């Protein structure tokens, strides 16, 4: 199966039946490399801080914090909102239904899950999957900022309103944030906003727009 056929298959798995082909350069699959000792220990201490965090009331309901997963030197960083029930149970991000769709989205642009890094704005599950509260985001964001500083991604994909607004420090709605290349903080790291996979499961008609967002990101990452 060639790259184009593979992409077609993955798009079908995403629930997109047909699409107009554009010529994309193949993604460079650089294997995750061993990190220098000092970086490994910074990652270790950051993870310990997250795992023992008691800074907000979410610690009382969680089974465990969900730190993040993937290649710590990844070029692509995907950021979601907060763990759901499955993530809380397993301690890993995006392992439920939304995670399966995220996997299909990743494959559609040529990545296995372990070739990118996946993290959330909130590291602990809000009870009943309610929206994150402002104070929770404020307390938790420094962990994500620290992860970004360590990963040094070449591009960030913010999935959903909470990730987009938190990373871009804006209150603009996702409809106005999609379709443009933003930059993370004062850096030159491009940031592309797309819909959250859980929203795409509820509104499959929007998957086509999410695919356009991924193409925009691929174009930007060249
Ligand atoms: N939704 C998210 O935003 N993050 C997860 O890890 C799972 C579902």
Strand runs, count: 6
- Which second-level CATH architecture applies? 3-Layer(aba) Sandwich
Widest sheet: strand ordering: 1-3-2-4-6-5
**Amino- and carboxy-terminal Cα gap:** 24 Å
Number of helices: 9
> Which structural class matches the secondary elements?
alpha/beta
| Helical percentage | 40-55%
Strand content is: 5-15%
- CATH class descriptor name: Alpha Beta
Small molecules (ligands, ions, cofactors) in the structure: uracil
Mean pLDDT: 91
Short description:
Helices cover 43% and strands 11% of the residues.
Question: What does this entry look like structurally?
Answer:
The protein has a single domain (3-12, 36-221), classed as Uracil-DNA Glycosylase, subunit E (3-Layer(aba) Sandwich), CATH 3.40.470. 43% of the residues lie in helices and 11% in strands. The chain contains nine helices and six strands. It has a six-stranded mixed β-sheet, sandwiched between helices. A hairpin with a 6-residue loop joins strand 5 (181-183) and strand 6 (190-194). It is globular, with a radius of gyration of 17 Å. Mean pLDDT is 91; it is low at 18-31. It binds uracil (URA). Uracil is lined by residues 80-84, 87, 93-94, 98, 120, 198. The site of uracil (URA) has 11 residues, from loops.
């Amino acid at each position: 199966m060639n790259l184009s056929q593979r992409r077609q298959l993955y798009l079908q798995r995403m629930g997109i039946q047909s699409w107009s082909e554009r010529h994309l350069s193949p993604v460079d699959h650089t294997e995750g490399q061993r990190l220098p000792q000092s970086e490994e220990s910074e990652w270790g201490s950051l993870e310990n801080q997250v795992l023992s965090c008691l800074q907000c009331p979410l610690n009382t309901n969680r089974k465990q914090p969900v730190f993040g997963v993937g290649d710590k030197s990844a070029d692509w960083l995907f950021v979601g909102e907060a763990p759901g029930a499955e993530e809380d149970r397993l301690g890993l991000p995006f392992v439920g239904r939304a995670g399966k769709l995220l996997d299909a989205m990743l494959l559609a642009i040529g990545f296995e899950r372990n070739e990118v890094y996946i993290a959330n704005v909130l590291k602990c599950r809000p009870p009943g999957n309610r929206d994150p509260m402002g104070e929770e985001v404020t307390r938790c964001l420094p962990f994500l900022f620290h992860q970004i500083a360590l990963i040094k991604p070449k591009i960030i994909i913010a999935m959903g309103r909470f990730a987009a607004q938190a990373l871009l420090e804006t209150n603009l709605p996702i409809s106005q944030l999609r379709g443009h290349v933003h930059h993370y903080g004062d850096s030159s790291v491009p940031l592309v906003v797309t819909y959250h996979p859980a929203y795409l499961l509820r509104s499959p008609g929007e998957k086509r727009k999410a695919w356009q967002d991924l193409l925009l990101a691929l174009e930007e990452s060249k």
